[in-house]
Design goal:
5 helices; 6 strands; elongated
Length: about 150
């Protein structure tokens, strides 16, 4: 089987070899004789274009937060034995109704926002029911938008 494959590949490549007396590519393309044996010429960038290309940097975009949100927080699964739909977060100072939106799934759920100590950049804890409601993996850290109710 291997020899058959090798034979087919070798014979198939024979059509790519020019016949004797056939014009060379350089003759067909009207390439000067001195350039015929060299590598193809490629356009060279101008020095000012090259400097601009080297100085250009790509910046990572800032994460977009949905309009009307209290902020974006990294949430993890809270106490699974505690019933209800809640989010314990440092983004609020009093218990209030709210909504949690998970951009990656496009789903949101109504929750009770419960304040916890810490800076606004600290993480939050989300109830089991709320995690399931927004379609989040129970073992992942997720970024959610928190909206006031």
């Amino acid at each position: 089987m291997r020899w058959i494959l090798i034979t087919v590949v070798c014979v198939g490549g024979c059509g790519l070899v020019p016949e004797r007396g056939a014009p060379l590519v350089s003759e067909v393309a009207n390439v000067p004789a001195e350039a015929a044996g060299t590598t193809p010429l490629r356009p060279q960038p101008r020095p000012d274009e090259l400097a601009t290309e080297l100085e250009t940097t790509v910046e990572a975009p800032e994460p977009q937060v949905s309009a009307g949100t209290l902020g974006r927080t990294v949430a993890t699964l809270g106490n699974a034995a505690e019933p209800g739909m809640w989010l314990k977060t440092p983004l609020v100072s009093t218990t209030q109704p709210g909504r949690v939106f998970l951009p990656s799934t496009g789903k949101s759920v109504d929750v009770t926002l419960i304040p916890i100590e810490g800076p606004a950049t600290a993480g939050s804890r989300l109830s089991l029911a709320a995690m399931q409601g927004i379609g989040a993996s129970l073992t992942d850290l997720i970024e959610v938008d928190v909206l006031a109710g």
